[in-house]
Amino acid sequence: MSEPQTETKQSPNPPAYLSTSTLLWFSLLVRFLFLLYSFYQDTYLPVKYTDIDYLVFTDASRYVSQSFTPYLRETYRYTPLLSWLLLPNVTWFESWGKILFVIFDLITGWVIIKILRLMKVKEAQAVRLSSIWLLNPMVITISTRGSSESVLTVFVISFIFHLIQGDHIGAGVLAGVAVHLKIYPVIYIPTCLLFLVDYTKPCELVCNPLKLINSKTLKFGLGAAASFLTLSSAMYYIYGWEFVEHTYLYHLTRTDHRHNFSIYNMSLYFTSSLSSTNSFEAAQSSYPIVNHLLSTDLSKLAFVPQLALSSVVIPLVYTKRSLSHTLFLQTLIFVSYNKVMTSQYFIWFLIFLPMILSRSSLITTMRAKGIAMLLFWILGQAAWLSQGYNLEFLGQACYYPGLISASVAFFASNIYVAMGIIDSVDGLSSNDGL
């Protein structure tokens, strides 16, 4: 008697709406509609849709088109490369930059999908997770308003992709470009080096730092140094010290206190305002203790916990357990402890969210905690925005307890999210490094 034949069951193909091409085309359509709406709001409504920074970029490009330095435009604090990229704003179409930012935005999402595939995430799940970026209203709004963050995110996520893929030179080159564009990605360099080193406990590297040197780390380091130094040297040759001052040094000493979610916001505000008042000068001569308290800028201490945690502690402890969780954590901590924090900065850690959720218990066994983290973060942000609106649009003096309390609450929500991510790292069933 012949044995019955058994059919091999194949996993069904995901439905069309969960395909990568469908998601990318739909994401493009949504962004196109946002751009169309931006023209309407900018034309007919008193509150403009376009970000003020986009006007700064365009003015800087106009100076470049006339063979001047882009830094003639006050508040232009970026690499001259950005003003070069946006030259068509002046010579062709004023919304060219927005289109470019949308393209980079979409490429970022596409690379996220490629990384998820490298992490062996199923196609349908990869599409769902990448939609956290591609269909995120915050991400879409930021790029279509004319913020340049997507230019940076595409280089950051691309060098992570090449790092995971094993292209160490390519990863280094892209990392160097990212640091040239904006200095904060330098915090990822220690993480990348640790990812390429064989060790089991952080104390091994502390006791023997030479373990950091191998062919992989040398290729990555040389690639990063080559691209960063080449671009920065070229910009310095053309524009001199003002390039270094405005692109890098300014961000180490900036004291913006408007639209600033940071816990140091009020310290920056009072320091900048009190130092120029007659009452402060009187306090200087009559009350030395009061003078000392008022003149102390607590934000100067921000770099200590910020860099210690984001550049040293978190990479050392978590890189070998999960690269994606480490990148998210160090970025979240860097942003949370930064003395200036605007909504654009949230994009910096959102690019890693699909990666960590692909392996996280926060969407499975710890789903309730994941929802609580999301709600706490949204409510903390909403509390600050309500106070910020009262201050900047209605002119209400709500510094204390309103704005200070809201800043503390939002900082606490960020730390709560970080703690939840740490718990999810501890709960990983396997440590494959990704």
TrEMBL record:
Domain of life, per the record? Answer: Eukaryota
GO: which molecular function terms? alpha-1,4-mannosyltransferase activity; GPI mannosyltransferase activity
Q: In which pathway does it act?
A: Glycolipid biosynthesis; glycosylphosphatidylinositol-anchor biosynthesis
The way this protein sits in the membrane is described as: Multi-pass membrane protein
Protein localization: Endoplasmic reticulum membrane
Specify the enzyme's EC class, one word. transferase
Family listed: Belongs to the PIGM family.
Protein name per its UniProtKB record: GPI mannosyltransferase 1
Q: Which organism is it from?
A: Wickerhamomyces pijperi (Yeast)
